[in-house]
Amino acid sequence: MEEFKSGFVAIIGRTNVGKSTLINSLVGEKVAIMTNKPQTTRTAIRAIVNREHSQIIFIDTPGIHKPKTKLGNTMIETAFGSVGDVDVVLFLIEATSEDIGKGDRIILEKIKEAGNKTILIINKIDLVKRETLLNLIETYRKEYDFQAVIPISAIKKDKTEDVLIEIEKLLKPGPAYYDIDEYTDQTMRQLVEEVIREKALKLLDDEVPHGLYVEVEKMNLRSTKNKEELYDIEATIYCLRNSHKGIIIGKNGNMLKRIGTYARQDLEKILETKVNLKTWVKVSEDWQNKENIVKNFKFN
Q: What is the C-alpha to C-alpha distance for residues 206 and 208, in angstroms, rounded to an integer?
């Protein structure tokens, strides 16, 4: 009988390389929010993959970037802090890179320091020619003794099964840390907050999104007159400036309605029940440097 294995796997990479897309593909559920905006992931989210002979706990870390606020510093500490405390590291890079860029070089040095078992994942292979890909693989192999190098297309879910197989090979025998029905350690409130933020990120202009955070004020499950379950959810979207507040609300409240509609549609799929969502917008100046708020993004 094959021995059961388990372990923790950190996914690390620059902003916008596709970490959240990959983690959702591996888990088969929406765990991490996805947008084309940098710094979408702010906390280290645990996602759980239960297989016949293993349980793999992924940690999706914030993208590596140059921090400008306390929040930014916390995100970087979270990302690098996870590298040394896991069983396996997935280092995600883009196939479109011709060489090792500054950001990837910083990550590579952290991996060398930690000395962990590391798999190099080259994402977006559908965007490059085979020769370019082979040259990139050769460049990285000269730098570090990776356990495996796996070219993938996370958005097309191409080769994601290969990733799980390679990870499984590197895990040690161990127990299941989570119930087999679980696929994330996020609370329901955190999931709701992240979904609302995702919709705002996708719909708003570039100057607004990084100044947003969402807080669920109320979340209550009740039965309707028709004996159907319904979640009443009230959430506040916080922004940095009054000018941002106007953009988020939009003319006649249209933008806020769109954010709420898209968020509700997603939440009804995730929660598998009807949702009554109400959202408000408030200004919280310089919240990215306020310790009482930023501490919520630290990884425990």
A: 6
**Using CA atoms, how far apart are residues 98 and 129, in angstroms rounded to an integer?**
12
Q: 116 with 221, same domain?
A: no
* SS3 state of residue 192: helix
157: CATH: 3.40.50.300
The answer to whether residues 211 and 154 belong to one domain is: no
Beta-bridge mates of residue 158: 153
Q: Give the pLDDT confidence of 48-78 residue by residue, as tens digits.
A: 888 989 999 888 766 444 444 444 444 445 5
CB of 97 within 8 A of CB of 55? no
Please count the structural domains in the chain.
Answer: 2
Question: CA-to-CA distance for 29 and 31, rounded, in angstroms?
Answer: 6
Asked if residue 88 and residue 14 are part of one domain, the reply reads yes
* 114-164 residue pLDDT tens: 888 999 999 989 889 999 999 999 999 999 999 999 999 877 777 888 999
> Residue by residue, what is the 3-state secondary structure of 53-77?
CEEEEEEECCCECCCCCHHHHHHHH
Six-digit token pair at 93? 């890079």
Q: What is the CATH number of the domain that holds 268?
A: 3.30.300.20
CA distance 222 to 228: 8
20 to each of 85, 160, 273, how far by Cα in Å? 20, 13, 25
Tally Cβ neighbours within 10 Å of residue 158.
15
Bridge partners of residue 7, in order along the sequence: 56
